[in-house]
Amino acid sequence: MNKKLFSILGIIALFAMAFGFAFTPNNVVANASHGKAMTAGCTTYTRNISGDSDSGFGGYWASDTYVSSYEVCPDSEDGYWVNRTDGGDWETFGGTSPSGASTVGAGVTGTFEGTWNGIHIDGTIMALSTDLGTVDFMCDANGVCSNKSSTLAQIFNPGYVADFPDTWIWTYTGGCQGDLWINAASGSSGDI
Question: 0.90 cut: is pTM over it?
Fold first, then answer.
C-alpha cells in the first residue's frame, strides 16, 4: 500500500474515532454510543432555508439563509443514522452579540457552516425526493417564526423518534474585522 493512501486512511480513521465511530469488518461503521451499525446505502436530502432566527447566549442575534443537508444512512436494526450539515449566510438583527458578552449593530453580515453528526432515528422514510425544496421560516428577532417546520419531519413519516447526541458545532465568520464565533456542544468561543 503506498504511503500517501495509508496516511489518508489514517486521517479518516482518526476523524471517525473523534466523532464516536469505529470501523468494523465488511465496510460497516458502528456508532460507539449506541452500538447500532450504519450500513451502506446512504441518501442525502437537501433543503434551502431562509429567514431562520439564530440564537446565541444572549438571545436571537441574526437571521440565517442556508442550505441544510441531511445524510441518512440505514442502521443494522431498521432505523437510521443522520448527519446534518448546514452552510450559508447570516445578518445581525442588532443588539446582544451571539456570545452574550457584548453588542453588535444591525446589518452586520457573514457566513457560517455547521454539523450535527450521529443523530439516530427510529422510523420510516416518507420523502419521495431528495430535494426538499425552499422555505422561508419567517422568523423575527424574538425567535417567533410563522412558517418554521422540521426538516426531519419532511424526511420521515409521523411518529419517528429522534435521539440527538451532543455532537454539534457551528462556526460563524464575518463582520468588519473578520470575527469568529464557534458555537459547539463541547464549548463555545469568540464573538461577532
Answer: no
